[in-house]
Specification:
By secondary structure, this protein is α+β, with helices and mostly antiparallel strands. The protein has eleven helices and nine strands. Strand 6 and strand 7 form a beta hairpin. The N and C termini lie far apart (about 180 Å).
Length: about 500
């Protein structure tokens, strides 16, 4: 367009010079050309191209929010109503000198870190950078990023243990990236890299962990070396043992072969001495076998002793290392163990003992009460069954007695007769303990003097049986005798005295 205008101006000048044309038209044309060129140059300057390492931010009347962000390409910036600035995408390093951050174990940790960040080119995040970072210097951007990173790292460390931070650096970095990235994106920054230079703590816990790991590695290496040495020595001893056993077996077979050859020779030479030769050969074979077994046993005993000595040496070294390790661990656990042993364990033991004793006493009392109740119940049941059996027997006997007698009075008389013996025994018991050392009989001058009527007089002194029966309303039969004062039986002329039964009475 500018070339065409320039050609038109040249043609106008040529016409004016050759024909004496109007110079006013020429001036007007030149003015129009200058104005057009000025406008063209102005528009060209307002057309902004964005480099790949920058973000073009157009603000003002953009029609797309507070700002329009362009990464790569170009855009026209209208004069008067729009303006523009560039945000640098070059990464910058933020040194983080994190000191005395509390971990989840309340141990202060120092984590010097270097963080690399840059302005993000993602949609939405670029607008945040345009809103919050446009017009700030590089140092002001670093300060904002440093404050955000410090706060987020302290929050991440507070959720982790020292061992997790020290041993699993990748997990720690992942948590830091996840926590810091989200916060930096709020101001338009992108987290490029996090580099942890070192991890230290004020109490020396990490150093102690390192020492423990080194001690464990050294101990394991010593154990591995001792194990390999033991395997090598065992292999050598096994090879030597096999060699000696093979040699002893060969010698034994040679001696047995010689004995067999000698036996065959003697058998062929003297057939009559065959049995003696066989016995001698068998004895030689047993002797050879005994010697071979003895050599093998000696070698095995020697190998076992050497192996036991080596094992004991290795076990002593391992035990020393383990003892040193346990001693180091015991220093940390000693105070806790002492408190447990002096306070917790006795209290728990006393509580368990009291609970067990109370349960045992309760169970014993319950068992005793149950046993006594069951014994009492069984005893009462047995007594009741015994009484019932006695009463049933008596009832059956009484019923049979009544059926056998003519009248009930006669049955009652028979039952009373059975009890007379017990009554007599009671009367005899009453006088048997009287202090009677001798019996003096005084003769009253009767017809039967001396001892002739002693029995009759003694019977008269005792309560008559008929009187006892009469008191209970019974009348004894006559064959049991008559009571005193009754007339003798008319059919017996020489009847005994009153109260004495006849000689032929039951």
């Amino acid at each position: 367009m500018s070339g065409m205008m320039f050609n038109a101006v040249l043609a106008q000048v040529a016409r004016a010079g050759s024909g004496g044309g109007d110079w006013s038209g020429l001036v007007l044309t030149l003015m129009l050309v200058v104005i057009a060129l000025a406008l063209l140059m102005g528009f060209a300057r307002r057309y902004k191209r964005c480099p790949s390492n920058k973000i073009l931010v157009i603000y003002g009347k953009t029609g797309s929010g507070v700002a329009r962000c362009i990464h790569g390409g170009a855009a026209f910036v209208w004069p008067l109503i729009q303006a523009h600035e560039f945000l640098d995408l070059e990464p910058f390093v933020v040194p983080i000198d994190l000191k005395s951050a509390l971990s989840s174990e309340n141990i202060r940790v120092t984590v010097p870190t270097t963080v690399t960040a840059a302005i993000s080119t993602e949609r939405g995040v670029m607008e945040n950078a345009a809103i919050r970072l446009l017009g700030l210097t590089d140092q002001q951007i670093r300060d904002q990023a440093q404050d955000i990173i410090l706060g987020q790292m302290r929050a991440v460390i507070a959720t982790m243990r020292i061992e997790e931070i020290n041993q699993d650096r990748q997990a720690f970095l992942s948590k830091v990236n996840e926590s810091v990235s989200g916060e930096l994106e709020k101001i338009g920054l992108h987290l490029v890299n996090v580099n942890i230079r070192d991890i230290e703590d004020d109490s020396g816990y990490i150093i102690a962990l390192g020492r423990r790991a080194a001690a464990e590695a050294i101990n394991q290496a010593n154990v591995d070396v001792a194990e390999q040495e033991k395997k090598g020595q065992i292999g050598v001893a096994t090879r030597q043992r096999d060699q000696r056993v093979a040699v002893a077996a060969a010698n034994s077979e040679a001696e047995i072969g010689e004995a067999e050859a000698d036996r065959n020779r003697r058998a062929r030479a003297a057939q009559l001495n065959t049995e003696a030769v066989e016995a001698e050969s068998a004895a030689n074979a047993q002797k050879a076998e005994y010697l071979a077994n003895q050599r093998v046993a000696e070698e095995q005993a020697r190998n076992r002793s050497e192996s036991a000595a080596r094992d004991a040496d290795g076990a002593i070294r391992v035990a020393q290392e383990m003892a040193q390790k346990k001693a180091e661990e015991a220093r940390a656990e000693r105070e806790k163990a002492r408190l447990d042993a002096e306070v917790v364990v006795p209290a728990n033991a006393e509580r368990e003992r009291v609970i067990i004793a109370a349960d045992a006493a309760r169970e014993q009392a319950v068992r005793i009460a149950q046993g006594e109740a069951e014994a009492t119940l069984a005893k009462m049941k047995a007594e009741g069954q015994g009484v019932k059996a006695i009463l049933d027997g008596k009832a059956a006997g009484y019923q049979a007695l009544v059926e056998a007698c003519a009248t009930a009075q006669q049955a009652a008389s028979l039952l009373l007769i059975e009890k007379l013996q017990e009554i007599a025994e009671i009367q005899a018991q009453a006088i048997q303990d009287l202090p009677i050392e001798k019996v003096v009989v005084w003769d009253g001058g009767g017809e039967k003097g001396g001892l002739a009527g002693l029995g009759q007089r003694l019977m008269g002194a005792l309560p008559p049986m008929h009187e006892l029966a009469r008191q209970v309303g019974l009348e004894l039969p006559d064959y049991l005798g008559r009571t005193a004062g009754c007339s003798p039986t008319p059919s017996t002329k020489d009847a005994p005295a009153a109260g004495v039964p006849a000689p032929d009475a039951g």
